[in-house]
Amino acid sequence: MAFVAVDWGTSSLRGALIADDGRVLDERHAPRGILSVPAGGFAAVFDELFGDWMAVPERRCLVSGMAGSRQGWIEAPYCPCPADAADLARHVIPVVAKRIAMVPGLSDSHDGVPDVMRGEEVQIFGAMQLTGLADGVFVLPGTHNKWVRVQGGRVLGFRTFMTGEFYALLGQHSILSRTIDPDAPLEAETFAQGVSRSTQGGGLLHNAFGARTLGLFERMSAAQLASYLSGLLIGEELRSQTLDASAGVVLIGAPALTARYALALEGLRITPRVLGAEATWAGAHALHTALQGTDTSCP
Predict the structure, then answer these.
(1) pTM of the complete model beyond 0.90
(2) Are residues 170 and 204 both part of a single domain?
(3) Whole-angstrom Cα distance, residue 178 to residue 173?
(4) pLDDT in tens, 108-132
(5) 157 Cβ partners below 8 Å, 6+ apart?
């Protein structure tokens, strides 16, 4: 029997009807993220968008993402790393008994400071299924980027970088907002210059000021400066990684973002594999299969 997978984020949600063999039969998208749902209104929004799919007797649903946060439908405590799909499946909690279940997300710790993800864990396990890779580095660009270490099919740990949020803050709320066009399309050459500058010392706090002075002296246009700043930030992120040309790297995310990371990684002579939304549905299928194996597909 087909099942329903829902990825419910902060600003939007999407759902898919997925066959037992993993084929996506139908998809739906809506701008109904958790911030737009009134208190106690999650069940009504779910029924409005997916009620016809769930009308089939005994059909089950897995929900992932921020719907499992404290501000969401029901809080699902994080599953600690290291973890594989079976470990994550054991931490799934019921929303509606035997019908709807919530995926918990993953947690890690760095020198006593916790790190968390919700929703990306499904994409990671899906990417493993789609690529056949059980070892490597999985990178998920977004507002808060995730760098994930995978070995033997298990997520060993991960680190989160607020690169996307810093880009938005600098481009919209700092002095740089007067000189750059944060919505300009990627210009590969100036982006690469930004990545290169990040490797030459000075640090981000100094190098970012260059995005103002390069405009002040008319050496870059507002559109070019947006790509340059993006390169500085992503380059700074790459500087904290230990990578070499033999590293197996998988990028998962929207094309506009994965293209930037792929370009930056090319400078390290690393050619990543790139995946998009298909990783989410493949991951949901992997978890659904793991839950069937434990006969607890919706507690």
Answers:
(1) yes
(2) yes
(3) 9
(4) 999 999 999 999 999 999 999 999 9
(5) 81, 82, 108, 148, 149
